[in-house]
């Protein structure tokens, strides 16, 4: 009676608790502002209600994401939404969100977000009610590979730990130990105590499944050390105590198992924060007491655990409850009740695909129903074989995934090496090409410098010839002056001395003969006077005459070049400028330009006459070279080497040149040279009026 009353009170309390849980905090507004999306998502994550209770808000948030135009902001929303909805079983919303999240991460080439999308998908497939372990392992593996490439040790270790947990679910405990060990190795340099706790706990579970209990207990103790560093993880400590108690129970040490279960279930507010763990501990504590022969509270705890699990929808726990109730009822002689509970355990295990619980229930049913024992045992045998094959298939798939991952990594490393080799070859070829181009360019520069040197030597030689010609003219002038001086000294001066002597002799005489002689002497003096005047005028004209050797050279060039070709020429130049005062480089380049133009006229123009002028126009020298040849269209065809040479020479003397031509009207070359190429003396002379120039 007391027991039944206690159960009724408990049911009432639990009903009120469930009502309170179902009410939860106030609902979110249906109108969701874009700026508040992250706030709403954070409130959903912090809420004590199951995620399923927020489906309306999550659907509304997802619909609002279509209005977000900034991809970098949108992907943040999708990341949060994908993480939250990954905890909802059979959720089309998660599949839509995760698909959009993965697609946008790929478009933005955001490796971190892409890894998070794979991580969320793996967590979704790892949910107990979905339990697609091979898919979960595959997406965890994809996420871990990306984190490894990004050298993100923390995230990589978390995904490795999740992979190890998946492996323990399919009894690939050896593989789980490998991945959990790698996770621990990555975490040790960091103060990530909670992540280390999960990794050590997973190691303990794997070793316990392999029945290496001492090794498992050692890792459980290491996990507890990490929780002690956190100082506030009482719920996690209760979960760890449950694992340790379960280890002792499997080991047959029920006293230590009971001690761990009692310490865990006494955790403050455990029923409120973790009802599934509280129900599990009640179940384990009841079976431990049953194993110890302490039957006082066994059924009570089992029913209480059953009620909690039923209220939170823990089908996995309910299946275990039914099985344990069948064991207890069988032991105390209520075989009919045991048979019903075993059948419930079997049916629920089949519904949730818990193959191990299904096999245990079949074996128990064969013991409770001897008449149909063969039926249950045959089904047990068949199911056991299928289960072994399925586990083997999944483990092989895990191995294939790992192998393919390693193969991909090896291929990537090989491709990286090949890429380095190709990069080295490309760099070598590039350096060779650069070196070759430098050699070629240097050789061209050397040839150009050599050509310029030869040209300068030729120009210098021509200039020296001009100077020599000028020197000869000066020598001719000096020779003529010497001749005139000798004429004055030897001829006129001698005659004047003779006349002077005659006049001195006649000064003392006054007869007619003397008078006649004096008249002759005077007449002789007049002749000498006229001769002196004549010589003086000749010298005066010579002093004002300009000898332009450069112009003479130009005229000689015209005569020697065009006359043999049967072409008439007209040559004029400004008489007021001393053209020999031009700089040597300027004269050489003008001479070569004229020479090139004459050659073009003879070769291509078919001209009969040519006009050349050298004039001074303001502050520049203007040179015109015009022929009456056939002409050509200046805009068509490529420039010949002759035109390029003219352009190069004009550029050297900082001048300008214009080419005017058309078919049938001949060709005109116009050069404009700055006055800066004339010496200062010549400039002064040009700037003076003509009468002052003569003075």
From TrEMBL:
It catalyses: ATP + protein L-histidine = ADP + protein N-phospho-L-histidine. TPR repeats lie at residues 197-230, 238-271. It comes from the Bacteria. It is an enzyme of class 2 (transferase). Keywords: Coiled coil, Kinase, Membrane, TPR repeat, Transferase, Transmembrane, Transmembrane helix, Two-component regulatory system. It holds the Pfam family TPR_8. Residues 213-243, 518-545 form a coiled coil. Residues 483-677 form the Histidine kinase domain. The keyword Kinase applies. SMART domains: HATPase_c (SM00387), TPR (SM00028). The chain crosses the membrane at residues 420-441. Its EC number is 2.7.13.3. InterPro entries: HATPase_C_sf (IPR036890), HATPase_dom (IPR003594), His_kinase_dom (IPR005467), Sensor_HK_TwoCompSys (IPR050482), TPR-like_helical_dom_sf (IPR011990), TPR_rpt (IPR019734). This is histidine kinase. It comes from Muriicola marianensis.
